[in-house]
Amino acid sequence: MKITIAQLNYHIGNFEGNVAKILEAIKQAKAEGSDLVVFGELCTCGYPPRDFLEFDDFIKLSEKAVKRIAKAAKGIAVVVGSPTRNPVIEGKDLYNSAYFLADGKVQSVAHKALLPTYDIFDEYRYFEPAGEFNIVEYKGKRIALTVCEDIWNVGNENPMYTICPLDELMPQKPDVVLNLSASPFSYDHAADRIHVLKANVKRYGLPMFYVNHSGAQTEVIFDGGSLVMSPNGKVFDELPYFQELIRTYDLDEVMTGKAKDKNAPYGEQPKEKIALIHDALLTGLRDYFGKLGLKKAILGLSGGIDSAVVAVLAQRALGAENVRVLLMPSQFSSDHSINDARQLAQNINIQYDIIHIEDIYDEFAVTLKPHFAGTSFNVTEENIQARIRGLLLMAMSNKFGNILLNTSNKSEAAVGYGTLYGDMAGGLSVIGDLYKMEVYALAEYMNKDSEVIPRNIITKPPSAELRPDQKDSDSLPPYEQLDEVLFQYIEKQQGPKEIIKMGFDKKLVARVLRLVNISEFKRYQTAPMLRVSNKAFGMGRRMPIVGKYLS
Amino acid sequence: MKITIAQLNYHIGNFEGNVAKILEAIKQAKAEGSDLVVFGELCTCGYPPRDFLEFDDFIKLSEKAVKRIAKAAKGIAVVVGSPTRNPVIEGKDLYNSAYFLADGKVQSVAHKALLPTYDIFDEYRYFEPAGEFNIVEYKGKRIALTVCEDIWNVGNENPMYTICPLDELMPQKPDVVLNLSASPFSYDHAADRIHVLKANVKRYGLPMFYVNHSGAQTEVIFDGGSLVMSPNGKVFDELPYFQELIRTYDLDEVMTGKAKDKNAPYGEQPKEKIALIHDALLTGLRDYFGKLGLKKAILGLSGGIDSAVVAVLAQRALGAENVRVLLMPSQFSSDHSINDARQLAQNINIQYDIIHIEDIYDEFAVTLKPHFAGTSFNVTEENIQARIRGLLLMAMSNKFGNILLNTSNKSEAAVGYGTLYGDMAGGLSVIGDLYKMEVYALAEYMNKDSEVIPRNIITKPPSAELRPDQKDSDSLPPYEQLDEVLFQYIEKQQGPKEIIKMGFDKKLVARVLRLVNISEFKRYQTAPMLRVSNKAFGMGRRMPIVGKYLS
What we know:
Oligomer: homodimer
Structural class of chain A: alpha/beta
Number of helices of chain A: 18
Largest sheet of chain A: 6 strands, mixed
């Protein structure tokens, strides 16, 4: 038997586009002589469809999509993910299902049993868990259909579920396991995935075909990395990351773990953290623009590391001709800032304009003078500068249709070191899930072949340049320390006592955790942030604004 | 037996404050000779605690709170809601529990079985559903402990759950049902609540004590309205809305449905929609400021209806001395706008300042002129005005510590008729869950005793005044139609076909639904909106930004 996996980039709610892509892949799989082609989870409607699932009209369109695909399932079996209505009145209205299509119609439907409801996932909001487990027979093979999380309750130290779907299916003696996934990228997810698949193969001794999405849906990035595992527990093949790809396998070869063709491109992919993040962010940028039907970006280039890294990412993702930047010096800007920013723009060949903000700033000062009488320069005046820049960028964005990219990093977003409606403005936060030290690492990675980002941008001490001789270190702990405390609190969910036990200063920890918690109101109003870690700000981290915990 | 219900306003994560409040209520209940006092769901930590629940430290503090309260449970039994650890490794780590405390210690713990995971609720994200059901015996009475949603699977047309906790408990022959709730306000929730309680009493024939939270946690408002129901299906008492209150009942009186004291203040509360919304918004405003330790608000007063209504709400919630407004006319402002706004400020006795924005606008025009060469006045220039106003308001906010209130309404937020970082700025959206026609109704309600809002503000055609002779009706359908289409799409989740079937124009429906869907990126960056309907924008409505459905 030949099995094809189709690792595709779907678009939420774009039924026409998704079906066309699926039909094309079926054609290709047939041309390759395949018996069975497998697509991703909820591939008809895209993932995550979120509350669109509450619209009957949306479910009808998903059902129509399955019908159209079923008609093409002739001479080949097709497995697609799509929502299904729950015929029982009690319980949630839908199932998250895998459809087995053959001979031009639906042969059977298997439902997802384990519904991730943590971090960015809200599946129990919509779906009823499967209560029945049945394998499918096709061309003499007994096939176990599973959906994403269904295979993740094996090999975990703290399993979130009380059942294990493959345990339920084993009495029916399946020959092969298919898994339809929509499993988002984080920089260590590919390794986790292989770990979990290996644990499954070890437990059940069956070959597995794991099919993931590629491409991004707003902040959620899918890396692909679809897997074929042999019963001996070895990775038979791992598809390249961040690409659409269709590949056909001979099940006999997968069973033995050996490809007959010595030149077959099978094998594992490299998993270097910063390289993965780099490619993930390009995917996130490309799909945000592509799927919204947009082309052009704009951002403010301050001469600092954050905007430099975002500019290079934008140029690489969208093309130099689609990126423009504004350099907006004030009386507090240093000469090197302008020079460094200009040099970077020239290095990557993007349009740059210099707009001085002093006159506008002075006009605000004159207008506000009677109201500010008796007060002195403080964070208010710093914020006015940041907001004038935000306003100018949005004006250019409105006039010319360039979407503003936000350049805040995760360390800043965490402690609220940014101005709402100023440097926190933008349609998409590109590096909002990268701690400052990771931004530096990414800059070095970008420079690995040649100096794209001027050295001085990387080496000078970070500054917002909103008052004379300002440095980030005036108001924040050193980023080496700050980032580690933040990582423990945000990614590892450690409390103050645990973090202090790791050797961090008690006052520092209390201050940092307090800053994180009192800045929730700012993050609430921030653009979606491309997610690359296991715990990004945004939909995956849901915190009260009005609270009094560590604040 | 005497039973006390304590309807209190908790504060998320403020364990000290919550425990102090609970201890004080226990004291009062004892003074009233009560045998048993019942508090709300998760009252130790506040509701909704959201991802704070993922911190071990937060759970430890909840456990400590229960221990402190247990010590005070002497001579009286106390029932409190608090999270409990799940001792089994499989499944979610926590239960959402009701603790029965007596003789200075925990006597038993009952877990919530039905975990709301829809709209603003995420309970399955954190909690394992109860698998066991046991009643508690105390002073000869057999008591069924239930938590909020546990009693909501009775009398629904489309039940979301497959079990019914009281069905499980009935074989143990309880005498009385206690329900610990944290059930958020919406303008028809009080009526729904009574409907559901009646359905329970009808089915089980038992008296019920339903205890709700009062007060707001950011956008989520709790109205109280705690209920005592007699076995004859009548409301024995409903506590007043939006108040903290402790009241003690004689169970024998509740059983018969008749109070011995003819002067007892028992009875149902009035449920007029706009009056409820008015009081809910005052609660939301008061607690947003109070729980964040803030006092003073600022907003822009345009002369239009939205900002007028928000100014009056702020003045009523926070006091005239804590509210100031800016009038920020441009060359496009009409005389009546300034006059109407000034009149309103004088009517409600709040500080107002007039800041002309023409000079700043001109300075932006000069600065942008070389970059805008060859373009003509369009929405860009309109947005610049809105953003200058936003910047000035934020400058005053930063300088003097007045929190900026957002004045956008739900109709505008729905169709994206607002400027990000301009009139969409602010820490809290006060009327973001009111359609324009509801804003008018609220204005009339405010004027019922005397003319607070100048008549002209209510009667003139709405306009953003960002270009000469602009009217909302230039770019939007009449609000009477728009609001109805939006209501069907947002609150009723009707699709285009269903809405057209109701008699609305096909093109109008397509246009409105498209506007809603393509404006998701704007709403993503909007302040939290005080929730008064069954489907508010924000955490209760989760939509993809990059999608292609009806867009």
